[in-house]
């Protein structure tokens, strides 16, 4: 078991390349189940969630060949409707995409309820509502979801909650269903467009992705194809925030700036200079940052996945900023850890009130979830002295080579094996 050690205070300078989008990757890989022949996906991020999903595709009989760490060939010809009630499905949230993809392909699936970051309650009722509307019988038996259908038939489905996962899962189940499916109040995230692009390359008929009404005309078969993933807007946002917090001048490369408009607008409001070009962002922080309020919303609003890193940035801004997460109101586990590092943050009525500026101080802290981990890494870069971060399994699920990428920018950051005593302390914490 390892910890990350960060010697804070060193300025970030230079260029950082953004990897493929985690939240696309985790849907694109299960989507390959729906094809009848080889699917090649390139530009995948080198993160543990991707490799876990690759293993799950093999468990159901797929042939998964990695050409390099970022390009995978998936041959679904021998896949079967193997039940996956336990094991690796519990490791990540996105294993729920096996429900939609296997239901779409085999008319049946058994998938254990997914794991992933604890961000408060994360129901999947809208996924199930969609599957049922398409004709599946859905039951929860001892913690696994059983889906069975004689055949799937297109339907009109109104999502009561705008959900990324439900929108993608229903698309996966509907692309081969008989007739027409309409998803109303659909989510509009770029990752949904990326998945629809892959499915369309396979031969699916999908219109309206990126709007809140998606129309799907079912087709009997889907073919293999090649697909290149979009860049990770959340990774790009994380490093933009790190650059604003501790940078002199940082060039973020391989990014689609339009995917980050809400975040860039907030950084500019704080006094950060940002030059945009087609695939790059040049970030130069102002001398003194001003506080802003942020409220997370569904895309294109401010992403919940950047709320925690942004909270860290606010600790160095003048005045008070209020952070409200309307998507996951309980996504606040990083706050106690930031307080350990001398942050002045109060939680009132579900909002975090961050008063600044303060000089953060190095401390021993733990990542409770993926983006909490990112927020604490940024805090470590800003802090005086040494920060030791445990809970790295969360960070490794979603950030490719984080220590290497930050080292290239001039950060003093490395990983060390934990002592037996530290492991015991961590496990008891
Ligand atoms: N919701 C329901 N019922 C449902 C589905 C969702 O009530 O059936 C609620 C959720 O509780 C939440 C809101 O709707 O309050 C939005 O949830 P959504 O379904 O959009 O989230 P998700 O698909 O489970 C994805 C990302 C998350 C990201 C959210 C919101 C993946 C694998 N995960 O989760 O990413 O926070 O969308 O944008 O795509 C992360 O990357 O750190 C991460 C947690």
Descriptive notes:
The strands form 6 sheets. Strands 21-22-1-23 form a 4-stranded mixed sheet, covered by helices on one side. The chain has a 4-stranded mixed sheet with strand order 2-14-16-15. Strands 4-5-3-13 form a 4-stranded mixed sheet, with helices on one face. The chain has helices spanning 22-31, 48-59, 97-106, 125-133, 164-174, 190-202, 233-246, 261-270, 307-314, 334-340, 370-382, 392-398, 402-408, 420-428, and strands spanning 2-7, 12-17, 39-42, 63-66, 72-75, 108-112, 137-141, 144-148, 156-158, 180-184, 205-207, 213-217, 225-228, 247-253, 273-276, 280-284, 294-296, 319-325, 344-348, 351-356, 364-366, 386-390, 412-417. Helix 1 packs parallel to helix 3 (97-106), helix 7 (233-246) packs parallel to helix 9 and helix 7 (233-246) packs parallel to helix 11 (370-382). The chain has 2 domains: 2-19 and 231-428, Enolpyruvate transferase domain (UDP-n-acetylglucosamine1-carboxyvinyl-transferase, Chain, Alpha-beta prism), CATH 3.65.10.10; 22-228, UDP-n-acetylglucosamine1-carboxyvinyl-transferase, Chain. The chain is globular. The model has no long low-confidence stretch (mean pLDDT 96). A hairpin with a 5-residue loop joins strand 4 and strand 5. The longest helix has 14 residues, at 233-246. It has 429 residues and is α+β, with helices and mostly antiparallel strands. The structure holds uridine-diphosphate-2(N-acetylglucosaminyl) butyric acid. Uridine-diphosphate-2(N-acetylglucosaminyl) butyric acid binds at residues 23, 26, 93-94, 117, 122-127, 161, 163-166, 187, 234, 304-305, 327-328, 370-371, 398.
